[in-house]
Amino acid sequence: MTLERVLVEPSAPDEATRLAIVDRARRRGFRGFVAAPGSGLEPLAGEEVVIRRDRRLEIPGRADPVSIHPIASLEELERAVRSAAADGFLAVEWPHDRVIPLENLVAAKGTRFRLWTCVESVGEVPAALGALEHGADRVVVRVRTTDEIDELEGILETARVPSLDWVEREVRSIRPVGLGDRVLVDTTSLLRADEGLLVGSAAAFLFHVASEAVGSAFSRPRPFRVNAGSAHSYVLRPDGTTRYLSELGPGDTVLVAAPGSCRAVRVGRIKIERRPLVSITADDAGKERTVFLQEAETVRLSTAEARVAVTDLAAGTKVRGVKLPAARHLGTAVEESIEER
After folding, report:
1. Bridge partner residues of 48 (DSSP)
2. Last residue of a domain, one of 160, 184, 210
3. Do 170 and 318 belong together in one domain?
4. Statement: residue 132 has pLDDT above 60
5. HSE (side-chain half, CA atoms, 13 Å) at 92
6. Where are the alpha helices (DSSP H) in the chain?
7. Residue 335: helix, strand or coil by DSSP?
8. Which domain range does residue 99 map to?
9. What is the dihedral of CA 260, 335, 341, 181, to 10 degrees?
């Protein structure tokens, strides 16, 4: 999901609120808008403003307006596909069912035509963008309040995955530290064995803690889970900010990463339990970086060759992680001097 695929259509009854919606959307990074004729909304640099006249869209770069096809039956869907095949473009809206017919359209379009869909509420956007893992090329969403812009931004957080600086650091010590509160992060997505969360006691270096997509001799795989570490630890989010593991809750987003790839996923459940912990210290150009993890065979750190269980980890092992700006204020990187131990 990306902000670039969403066009905001301010639909408040009064002009002041419509202008406030546009202003909030611009500050949140949205660059596509749909406006009524005579609204006076002019695109800024890099923006796109589409004019809607009833059920017709005037799209910059297209000579003729595009009709919006209401899809309420199989016959209307088939007629719309035939129209799109000839024009190379299709815009639709949904008086009733929307998910299954949209999946049918996504399957039918391939590379033959571009598909736009118009939705009535922010809550419909994820299905419109994610149908059959591809969704519509563009989604026009009616927005009635400025708060809905914030809600929409939260849905689209997957757009802002950061560029990651992967490095290897040598483990210096592994030592038991007794009981502590460790945090299981269960996501709403299935994770690969090489994917995991970026976690640590200092934001300057976050260790790559692998998912439980591989089980052990005595436990089944839990491919939705990362046994992420102690409650105080930082975890990286899709927008490049950090949160404490103890702060995460259902619906929050976390960044699931592997060298060469990263994506945002939603937290489905958090489990905090008292368990035996180990402190793992790695050398980062002369500075000690630590992570506190549960002492268990299913908790693994990533190396260049594989994932190593903390119960098998030894001094001298080079583990993978990510370098970040060290100073943080409420999770956001800031420029200041800082020392973390």
Report:
1. 32
2. 160
3. yes
4. yes
5. 33
6. 15-27, 74-87, 99-109, 125-130, 146-155
7. coil
8. 3-160
9. -60
Residue 102 has pLDDT above 80, yes or no: yes
Mean of pLDDT values over 44-61: 92
pLDDT band at 96 (very low <50, low <70, confident <90, very high): confident
Beta bridge partner(s), residue 225: 186
Are 117 and 173 within one domain?
no
233, burial (CB in 10 Å: exposed 0-12, middle 13-18, buried 19+): buried
Q: Which two tokens stand for residue 309?
A: 């269980």
Handedness of CA 87, 6, 251, 149 (dihedral sign): negative
Please say whether the beta carbons of 125 and 119 come within 8 A. Answer: yes
Same domain, 145 and 205: no
- 335 by Cβ neighbours in 10 Å (0-12 / 13-18 / 19+) ranks as exposed
pTM to 2 decimals?
0.62
Out of 130, 160, 190, pick the residue that ends a domain. Answer: 160
Task: Name which of 29, 4, 33 is nearest 19 in CA terms.
Answer: 33
CB 141 within 8 A of CB 149: no
How far is the C-alpha of 221 from the C-alpha of 214, rounded, in Å? Answer: 5
Q: Are residues 154 and 231 in the same domain?
A: no
